[in-house]
Design brief:
Elements (H helix, E strand, L loop, with lengths): L11 E4 L7 H31 L6 H18 L2 H9 L4 E3 H34 L4 H4 L2 H27 L8 E2 L6 H5 L7 H34 L4 H30 L7 H25 L2 H21 L1
Parallel strand pairs: 1-3
Antiparallel strand pairs: 1-2
Length: 318
């Protein structure tokens, strides 16, 4: 087995999280985050269920939406359960292996979601600008190819960034000023010069975040040109409503991720890092299903039908 510590004297990390808060504040945070986690799991789970079982939601858009909810479930589960445990126990220690695994999952799932959001923008472009060829262009094989691409780059990216984070020895302070193992913070704890690893992560963030953003901007620029060329105001309103949900999710996710991984470390600090980390690891996965369901009549109808079938099944079992 490869020694990931590379001869380091530090054998574990201490997740500071909200350790400095009072007991009453920690109890309140536990209740709030448990409620947010439960809501996110329930809402995303419902979207996964209805997009995979409701025959009326068999278009590529809902296929990608179901996958986005699956990624959100994976993403939020990599950080929040551990944070909830640390809010009720005194021991905040995390082994090297646990920290490395958590960081890999955050990177892998996060990058896959970045790429998936770009593919969802492309899907909207094809649906709006090429409606007659939509089914042919976004065929099952094409969709599976796009999904495989997102997962492949996510998993490969996770390996690269994990290596860059843990390639050097650790012999400094082992306290991580956040509620999970975030790469830029862990790198600064290494004994060697962290600048090379930080530059690699910065360059990787440019590619991972800005490349999908370019595809998103191009897709919506063409969508906007197509919308403005239409004479029907009702058609414009429906198209704007469909695209607004996706754009809202993109703004939430990309803004917080860019702050965490593309800003100089001198501008960071516990008071700044935690809110943005909470935004893209907790708030965004919770808001995604709410944003999509409340702005989409077909989704609301499918949710009502799913909940109605559940209530009927429970009534028949009594």
């Amino acid at each position: 087995m490869v020694d990931l510590r590379n001869g380091s004297t530090v054998t574990e990390f201490i997740i500071v999280g909200f350790e400095q808060s009072s007991h009453s504040t920690q109890a309140l945070l536990f209740a709030v985050f448990l409620a947010l986690y439960s809501l996110a799991m329930a809402m995303n789970g419902l979207i996964i269920f209805i997009t995979w079982t409701d025959p009326r939601l068999n278009s590529p858009m809902y296929f990608f939406l179901g996958l986005l909810s699956f990624l959100d479930v994976c993403f939020i589960t990599t950080t929040i359960p551990q944070m909830l445990i640390h809010l009720v126990v005194q021991n905040h220690a995390l082994s090297f292996a646990s920290c490395l695994t958590q960081m890999y999952l955050v990177f892998g799932v996060g990058v896959a979601e970045c790429i998936l959001l770009a593919f969802m923008a492309y899907d909207r472009y094809v649906a709006i600008c090429h409606p007659l060829s939509y089914a042919q262009i976004m065929s099952w094989h094409v969709r599976m190819g796009l999904v495989s691409t997102a997962w492949f780059f996510g998993l490969i990216n996770g390996i690269l960034l994990d290596y860059m984070t843990f390639r050097g020895p650790f012999c400094r302070d082992n306290h991580i000023e956040n509620f999970f193992c975030e790469a830029p913070i862990v790198i600064t704890l290494s004994c060697g010069d962290p600048q090379f690893s930080l530059r690699v992560i910065f360059a990787d963030a440019i590619v991972v975040l800005l490349s999908p953003m370019v595809l998103i901007v191009i897709s919506y620029a063409r969508i906007l040109a197509s919308i403005l060329g239409r004479t029907s105001s009702s058609g414009r309103g429906k198209t704007f409503s469909t695209c607004a949900s996706h754009l809202t999710v993109v703004v939430f996710f990309y803004t917080s991720a860019m702050f965490s991984y593309m800003n100089p470390r001198s501008t960071h600090g516990p008071d700044k890092d935690k809110p943005f980390s909470l935004l893209y690891t907790v708030i965004t996965p919770m808001c995604n299903p709410i944003i999509y369901s409340f702005r989409n009549k077909e989704m609301k109808g499918a949710m009502v039908r799913a909940l109605g079938r559940t209530s009927l099944a429970q009534a028949e079992s009594i």
